[in-house]
Amino acid sequence: MGNAGNRLQGALIGCGFFAINQMHGWADIADVDIVAVCDHDAGRAKAMAERFAVARVYDDAAAMMRAETLDFVDIATTPPSHRALVELAAAHRIPAICQKPFAPRLDDARAMVAATQQAGTMLMVHENFRWQSAIRAAAAALQSGSIGRPFFGRVSFRSAFDVYAAQPYLATGERFIIEDLGIHALDVARYLFGDVSGVTARIARVNPAILGEDVATMMLDHASGVTSIVDCSYATRLAEEHFPQTLIEIDGADGTIRLDAGYRLTVTTPGGSRAEDVSPTLLPWAERPWHNIQESVLAIQRHWVDCLRADTQPETSGADNLKTLALVEAAYLSAAEGRPIDPDTL
Ligand code: NAD
Ligand code: 89V
Questions:
Q1: What residues pair up with 126 in beta bridges, in sequence order?
Q2: Do residues 167 and 242 lie in contact, with contact meaning Cβ atoms separated by under 8 Å?
Q3: What does the pLDDT average to over 74-95?
Q4: Does position 3 have pLDDT exceeding 90, yes or no?
Q5: Using CA atoms in the order 56, 62, 63, 66, what is the torsion angle rounded to 10 degrees?
Q6: Best residue for ligand 1 mutational test, from 24, 39, 297, 321 (most atoms within 8 Å of Cβ)
Q7: How large is the average pLDDT for residues 303-331?
Q8: Pocket, ligand 1, Cβ cutoff 6 A
Q9: How far is CA 33 from the centre of its chain?
Q10: How large a percentage of the chain has pLDDT more than 70?
Q11: Calpha distance 309→72 (Å, rounded)
Q12: pLDDT per position as a tens digit, 25-76
């Protein structure tokens, strides 16, 4: 460990829109110190350092990794830089967290996993949606067995929220909703129903002002026997905007689970229906409507610290997340070729 005491010393790379949540999360974890921040944009790095009282500021990640003694780096840049930064961390034998999407393509992600395995360093993808407390509550209801063997699932995210305002790059990529948001929903489907042997997808671009697809409907064949629908849209104007809530339906042989808008979880069994409010905690630094995501950032970062200390693999390790990224690739290929794709063949 980098510190003589029992505290962990970390550094942040990428001081943009989302990284502020990660810095708040680190500030809430008692035994972690973020000792340095880095961004190509020196002004952004300086502003982040001032806001969170971080000692040292860099505009070059390689220089930072040479100069600092670090227990981990937290990579919060956009995907094109992920591979180089994870490989750099591995070369310095520094454990790394990498934001989702893990990498632009599966081959990059495989190389990143190989580099960290060779270096013997831990790698976690910051795939935080499965850490949302409402989604954990739905998973716990499923795992309790009260609805019997599940046979159908739906993971749904439909909204007209203006995501482009805070993340303008989302409007300019050839790929959009599956790569950026569907990846979370696909990971939740894997988390709930297990690995996938087939993906059938359809995509559309409804908003003419963006380059990529903003609507996707995917059907997954899970090895467990569940068939699930993963659907997402940023072109869905509703009477009430639910951004950024993920809604879940699970049908089992003996009952059903519904995670409805407003964080209402209903479990129906032969004994009757029980509804519960599973709203996320509004952390002191959180802002509605982002608070469910913000709570999940703290949860996944706590998990990382637990894994580092216990030397155990994170739930969303790099190796695990290859399977989620393969679903993204399979969905794009299925949509392009109009046929089901087995992600294991990619
Ligand atoms: P952003 O563009 O606002 O910030 C990225 C920052 O990284 C920029 O300041 C840029 O200058 C810096 N950067 C890029 N390459 C760099 C490099 N090699 N070295 C140092 N700095 C570098 O982007 P954002 O919206 O904050 O998104 C960042 C990542 O977070 C993306 O991968 C995005 O998908 C992800 N994200 C995740 C969630 C979530 O819930 N998990 C939510 C939003 C965004
Ligand atoms: O979670 C994300 O990755 C974000 C958002 C929810 C806005 O799509 O990009």
A1: 99
A2: no
A3: 98
A4: no
A5: 90
A6: 39
A7: 98
A8: 13-19, 38-41, 44, 61, 76-79, 81, 85, 99-100, 126, 128, 167, 169, 180, 293
A9: 23
A10: 99
A11: 12
A12: 999 999 999 999 999 999 999 999 999 999 999 999 999 999 999 999 999 9
pLDDT value at 168 more than 50: yes
Q: Is 183:244 a contact under the CB 8 Å cutoff?
A: no
The 3-state DSSP class for residue 314 equals: coil
Q: What is the mean pLDDT of residues 118-139?
A: 98
Provide the mean pLDDT of the chain: 97
Q: Which residue has the tokens 């190389």?
A: 111
Q: How many residues does the chain have?
A: 346
Which has the closest alpha carbon to 14: 73, 101, 87, 88? 73
Q: Quick one: which of 343, 64, 65 has its CA closest to 196?
A: 343
Q: Which residues of 147-158 are buried (b: 16+ CB within 10 A; e: fewer)?
A: beebeebbbbbb
Give the position, in ligand 2's atom list, of the atom nearest the Cα of 170.
9
298 lines ligand 2 (CB under 6 A): no
Is the CB–ligand 2 distance for residue 163 below 6 Å? yes
Indicate the DSSP class of residue 339: S
d(CA 118, CA 87): 11
Q: What is the Å distance from ligand 1's center to 295 Cα?
A: 19
106 closest CA partner among 127, 82, 90, 126: 82
> What digits encode the pLDDT tens for the residues 215-249?
999 999 999 999 999 999 999 999 999 999 999 99
**Statement: residue 5 has pLDDT above 80:** no
Q: Which ligand is nearest to the CA of 161?
A: 2
Are 123 and 75 in contact, with CB atoms under 8 Å apart?
Answer: no
Instruction: Give how far the C-alpha of residue 272 lies from the chain's centroid of Cα atoms, to the nearest Å.
Output: 34
- Asked if 168 contacts 160 with a C-beta cutoff of 8 angstroms, the reply is no
Cis upstream peptide for 150 (omega within 30°): no
Q: Is 236 left (phi over 0), alpha (psi -120 to 50) or beta?
A: beta
| pTM (2 d.p.) | 0.98
Judged against a pLDDT cut of 50, whether residue 2 lies above it is answered with no
